[in-house]
């Protein structure tokens, strides 16, 4: 919640000789409210302040009552009170700002902005007003308007760390990653308190998205040192995702995830534990995520959801994310018997809704990624809780029992890397959709590519392209002097940064071809124009490798010790292409050069991959049967009163 400067009642009526009994009583209630507020007892504070406001129509009492109601999780009560106050005092800026906050608590960002924009022109617009307006516009993705609002807030309070940070988040969403990183750097210099580790991780990520490798390397070293100094069991807000994808140390990843998981549970009072018991009827499985719309998670898993055996499993999707109106969202809504909207609810309310449905096994398909709902899991709404698909690594949470992997991505020999017990799928942990769009081949010229030359494709998010990876790609361009490198224009910084880096390696800028971002169905028609798909490390392509396999382009990868650097290997082994899994950069370079030098072999691989579109890797129905068998094994142990254990693939 935005920091607000609440006024004291005027005058201090408890000390005025002529104060009435009602005035004195009102002030006593007000002081009681302060005591409750100071100890974090916001429901009690809200009641006390409301009693004061009912006795004395002083705006300070009304504002205090509204503020406490918001903090107590009663935003609608606050809105009703603040509307009356605005009607009585149309230029009282704080009433507008506070009502906007109340609408924000209800996830009604449109109303939150509209209230602020209704403030009369003659009213004073202070720092809190501009800050709240900027945040509301940002949530509505109206970044062109949010940026000047943040700048107006900073003009009134230049040392406001959170406004610098949030301004950076608008720049981030506008594709200006380098500018965003500078804003976060300023915020850190001003001080972000307990959020410092998470902000440092975000700055590393932004620098990597901008492909500013020197800055990223400096910042990741500082981040890792801070993490290593942190107590192992502290509840700390951290950037677990950044560590999972950019730091090549599985045990350090586990520590960061554990710190974050403890941070989430530190403010949670778990629900009474529900024991696993056998019951009549189907096994009740719930999947929780904020990504049940046009997102990689839904692209991969939708056919699996559609294929669940409704005779044996009652499946519910708990959606905490937006309805983006896309065909994939509609398909997700129709995929299971129950699609429950949780967006706008607090984590405790989400947990209560899940508990009410009697879910036996709850799967977090989001993890510690943007828009995380992992805090819901800390309430322990289900007897068995599972981490799967959304996050490339361990949750670090003692309230999550299993991590679903496979023999390649999570070998049992790596058990120490994970806080959960490993539950292995027999083929690959990643589902796929055989009903996805088929690529529509087009001439290379349609994609801005030259004919008759080798095309090396690296369609990755920019953060995955490290200095080492890009240097390896440049080595390949030197070794293959006719080849071109085909990349995504992922943000506003990446083309200039990578072109400059290539020129520094002696590569002509014309040999880099940048492709714009396209909708998923159109994008799938592009990679097929390439000869080889180049993977990245220490974070592999995940969905992108599935896409390459689907369109028939052989990917080459480097396997490592962390989850994120084993996903491509898992997909390749599932496609019977283990020979394209390398153990180091030298082997990777050799494998790519061999594919380019042997066009007949490459053509045969392409035909084999296209023929495999009907094989188990892309069969969501087959995947559903395998994951159902894994759920039954988990449930059998739980109902027998046995603790979770590693479940090897069978």
Largest sheet: number of strands, sense, barrel closure: 7 strands, parallel
| Total of DSSP H or I helical runs spanning 4+ residues | 26
Q: Return the average pLDDT rounded to an integer.
A: 95
- First-last Cα distance: 50 Å
- Global morphology: globular
CATH class of the largest domain, named Mainly Alpha
Radius of gyration, whole Å: 27 Å
Structural class: alpha/beta
Annotated CATH architecture of the largest domain = Alpha Horseshoe
Going across the major beta sheet, what is the strand order?
3-2-1-4-5-6-7
Helix share bin: 40-55%
What would CATH call the homologous superfamily of the largest domain? Answer: Tetratricopeptide repeat domain
